[in-house]
């Protein structure tokens, strides 16, 4: 296990239930003081009371709707100013009902605000301080759909592709400067997100559904191993490395002074 700095406070978004609540529980068990963010103050208070009692860590709640720029600004301020915070788990997220043609555009915009804008702004608020002290962690909860948009409908998968790409860019920028980053790509995990988006999780075969504790424990094991990208259900980690290497093999070909021959009209079709 990598050394976990028990003095650092972890701020977890979407901590009132589901994956975020499980992260809060596991991080508290590791000795991290916590700042819990979500809209439901009552659920945050209940969780905070339990975690501080069971794990003897300080747990603050910071209720905020991360789609509201005014409320999100309070979370940004906390990340910028609270010297104790060294870990950020960008977990809050939602999906919306319907495909690209049917979904309510206001709902889609709110989803992009929550899944894309919020983690970008929260990371941007914290990162300068982490880099200045040369220590810290940022964990972004994306989704397996980031690399498999064909398995879903609507714009949700695109928000998760953003978070994966953002994490790769973040890693490039902070690599070697003491800040650990990780993108987590869970598959179908049993939480309320499905119900909120009007989808029945039990329409999937049981063997495709992971329980939330198992998912978070696997993601933290990937974090401890120093993984940049963790796919909790992928049996063979080398499969991810092969996928990533195939992508990287394209790099030298992606920008050239000449268009590829197949796009040139002067090449005879039978050449
Ligand atoms: N469950 C799954 O199958 C998968 C989930 N994921 C990702 O995991 C993350 C967690 O999802 P999951 O636990 O399943 O979902 P849940 O719906 O169970 O939990 C979502 C959390 O985000 C919070 N949240 C929602 N909207 C807002 C908002 N506007 N402002 C602040 N907080 C908000 C909720 O709290 P509150 O309502 O109190 O604000 C809640 O704590 C998401 O990013 C999701 O995309 C990825 C792959 C699979
Ligand atoms: C609601 C979903 O599509 C789910 N969160 C996922 O990322 O698989």
From TrEMBL:
Signal peptide: none
Entries under PROSITE patterns matching the protein: ADH_SHORT
Keyword Oxidoreductase: yes
MF GO annotations: 3-hydroxypropionate dehydrogenase (NADP+) activity
InterPro entries to which the protein is assigned, alphabetical: NAD(P)-bd_dom_sf, Sc_DH/Rdtase_CS, SDR_fam
Keywords on record: Oxidoreductase
Catalytic reaction equation(s): 3-hydroxypropanoate + NADP(+) = 3-oxopropanoate + NADPH + H(+); L-allo-threonine + NADP(+) = aminoacetone + CO2 + NADPH
Pfam families: adh_short
Top-level EC class: oxidoreductase
EC number: 1.1.1.298, 1.1.1.381
Record's function text: NADP-dependent dehydrogenase with broad substrate specificity acting on 3-hydroxy acids. Catalyzes the NADP-dependent oxidation of L-allo-threonine to L-2-amino-3-keto-butyrate, which is spontaneously decarboxylated into aminoacetone. Also acts on D-threonine, L-serine, D-serine, D-3-hydroxyisobutyrate, L-3-hydroxyisobutyrate, D-glycerate and L-glycerate. Able to catalyze the reduction of the malonic semialdehyde to 3-hydroxypropionic acid.
Family statement: Belongs to the short-chain dehydrogenases/reductases (SDR) family.
Protein name: NADP-dependent 3-hydroxy acid dehydrogenase YdfG
Species of the source: Dyella jiangningensis
């Amino acid at each position: 296990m990598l050394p976990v700095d028990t003095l650092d406070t972890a701020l977890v978004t979407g901590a009132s239930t589901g994956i975020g609540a499980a992260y809060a529980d596991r991080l508290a068990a590791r000795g991290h003081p916590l700042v819990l963010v979500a809209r439901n103050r009552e659920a945050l208070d209940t969780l905070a009371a339990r975690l501080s009692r069971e794990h003897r860590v300080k747990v603050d709640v910071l209720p905020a709707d991360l789609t509201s720029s005014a409320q999100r600004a309070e979370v940004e301020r906390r990340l910028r100013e609270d010297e104790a915070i060294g870990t950020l788990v960008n977990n809050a997220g939602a999906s919306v009902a319907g495909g690209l043609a049917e979904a309510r555009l206001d709902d889609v915009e709110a989803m992009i605000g929550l899944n894309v804008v919020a983690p970008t702004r929260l990371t941007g608020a914290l990162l300068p301080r982490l880099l200045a002290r040369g220590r810290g962690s940022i964990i972004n909860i994306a989704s397996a759909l980031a690399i498999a948009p064909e398995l879903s409908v609507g714009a949700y998968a695109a928000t998760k592709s953003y978070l994966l790409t953002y994490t790769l860019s973040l890693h490039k920028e902070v690599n070697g400067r003491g800040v650990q980053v990780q993108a987590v790509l869970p598959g179908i995990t049993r939480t309320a997100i499905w119900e909120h988006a009007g989808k029945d999780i039990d329409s999937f075969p049981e063997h495709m559904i992971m329980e939330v504790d198992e998912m978070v424990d696997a993601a933290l094991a990937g974090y401890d191993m120093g993984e940049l990208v963790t796919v909790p259900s992928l049996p063979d980690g080398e499969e991810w490395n092969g996928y990533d290497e195939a992508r990287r093999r394209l790099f030298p070909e992606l920008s050239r002074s000449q268009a590829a021959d197949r796009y040139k009209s002067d090449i005879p079709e039978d050449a």
